[in-house]
Every structure is written in C-alpha cells, then in structure tokens.
Design goal:
Elements (H helix, E strand, L loop, with lengths): L1 E6 L3 E8 L2 E9 L6 H14 L9 E6 L2 H14 L2 E2 L1 E2 L10 E2 L9 H13 L4 E6 L2 E8 L3 E9 L1 H11 L19 H29 L5 E5 L14 E2 L3 H11 L6 E2 L2 H6 L1
Parallel strand pairs: 1-4, 4-6, 7-10, 8-11, 11-12
Antiparallel strand pairs: 1-2, 2-3, 5-13, 8-9, 9-10
Helix pairs in contact: 1-2, 3-6
C-alpha cells in the first residue's frame, strides 16, 4: 500500500491508500522539531490499531509546504519503513502541469497537488477552493495550466487574529451559526467568520471565473478541512475533501518507480 503524507502548515495527514481507496488516515499537529523516531512510535501504534503491519507500506510519497518538516519525514520512510520516498514536485516527480504565473517555483505543493487531482477527475476549466490554514481559490484551465488565484486568511487564522489582537474577544468554536445576526459576542464572532468567509469566497469565485473563463462553464471544487462547513451553501459544484491526498496518489502513478522498498543491502549500507 501507499503511505501518502500531506504536510500542511497546521496539520500533517498520513493516509494509507490502496488502489485509489483511502483505507485509513491519521492527523497530527505540524511541528518541524518532531523527529523521525517520534513519528515512528506514533504511526506504528496507529497502524497496529487498524490491523496493518508496518510492512504493509510499500511506497511513500510526501507533499509539503513546510520545508523544515521534510527531512524527518524522509528519515521516517527510510529508517522505519525501509522505503525510498518520493517527494512531490522534486526531481523525477516534477509537476506534470504548466504554471502560467510569474513565480512558478513559489506555488505551494498543496495548490499543485490540488491542480493535478482536480484535472484528473474533472477535465475542463476548474476552480478549486481549499479551506485550510489559508483559504485559497485556484484557477485551472482545461489545458492543465495553473493560472493563479487568491489567498485569504483561513477561518482559524482569522479567529486567532481577533483573539490575539483584541482585549476582550474570546476564542470560539468554528461552526455555522443559526443566524447572521449574532446576539452575543460569541455568536457575532461566529457569524463574522462564517458569513464573512462565505461572502468573500462567493464574490471572488465569481470574479475569478469571469476574468479567466468569461461565460464558459466551470466546475468549482471544494476541499480542505473546513470545506464541509459550507457544503449547504452551494458554493461549489462538488466536495472532494481528500483532493491533496488524491493528488499525491496521482503523482506516484505518474512516477511508478519513484518510491521503492529498500533492499537488505540498502539497509545495511545506510
């Protein structure tokens, strides 16, 4: 099976994937100081709880927007799973898409992986809204070109900014409020976070579609940790929560020999 690792700014997601089906997934807070040994203790216990021996993992692919976390994840793969990992976007796993932007090297791995997975599932012009640490709206042409987009503070970042920069505003649970008119401080914050994000995303999506594709039909995809909050709002045509993980699987499919199990000689010489 494939161990896909999505290292985001807030969380790392480890997923066990078999023939396109996610069999198990685990989440841990992103901390670049965490060592390969710490990952191994945690992950091996979770694999055992799910009934998977560690030799179930035959390939590892890593996508990260946190460069400092990469080394220990690579060591985790080689030392504890005896697998040479593939790093999405690097070396032989260079992105099979065209970046029609001013600074292609600065496009985050998450946005590139979303582009790959979205285009594989839905040919044609696309807009991908990723509700993660940041809320990104990404524009993708039917020719597999990443055209750019917008980046907004994510819901949690916005909430933490209010709490840290005001004297009396508390941290609140991020949930869809019952009413846009908040009748308490907590409800007012929840309303602002939810309906403010909704208004920004709907407005920006409309303007981005118009600027990029005019009157042409476009599929809008929602993904990311907070996407389900807005599922009832009809802000996107389809919800694909695991788009980045599907992008990682796609990257490995396109580089079939990119990750391999180490031989005994490899292990002894390491």
């Amino acid at each position: 099976m494939l161990l896909a690792v999505d290292a985001g700014n807030t969380n790392l997601v480890f997923a066990l994937v078999d023939r396109g089906t996610i069999k198990a997934r685990w989440r841990i807070a992103t901390d670049p100081r965490r060592t390969a040994d710490q990952y191994a203790v945690w992950l091996h216990q979770l694999l055992e709880l799910e009934g998977y021996p560690k030799n179930t993992v035959e390939a590892v692919i890593i996508g990260t927007v946190v460069p400092r976390a990469l080394h220990n994840l690579e060591v985790l793969a080689t030392k504890y799973f005896h697998v040479e990992p593939l790093v999405a976007g690097q070396g032989k796993a260079a992105w099979p898409i065209r970046f029609d932007v001013d600074e292609p090297d600065n496009v985050g791995a998450d946005r590139a992986l979303n582009t790959m997975a979205a285009h594989a599932k839905y040919p044609g012009d696309l807009i991908v809204i990723d509700f993660g640490t940041a809320t990104t709206i990404n524009v993708i042409s039917g020719n597999r070109e990443y055209l750019g987009g917008t980046i907004l503070p994510g819901l949690r970042i916005a909430m933490e900014a209010l709490e840290k920069n005001t004297a009396r505003l508390p941290t609140v649970e991020i949930v869809p409020p019952h009413d846009i008119i908040g009748r308490s401080t907590i409800e007012s914050i929840q309303s602002g976070l939810y309906f403010g994000t909704r208004a920004m995303v709907i407005g920006l999506t409309r303007e981005l579609r118009k600027a990029a594709f005019g009157a042409e039909s476009t599929v809008v995809i929602g993904t990311g940790g907070f996407a389900r909050l807005f599922e009832r709002e009809k802000m996107f045509d389809v919800l694909v929560p695991d788009l980045v993980l599907l992008g990682l699987q796609r990257a490995l499919e396109m580089n079939a020999d990119g990750s391999r199990r180490w031989t005994r000689q490899d292990v002894e010489s390491a």
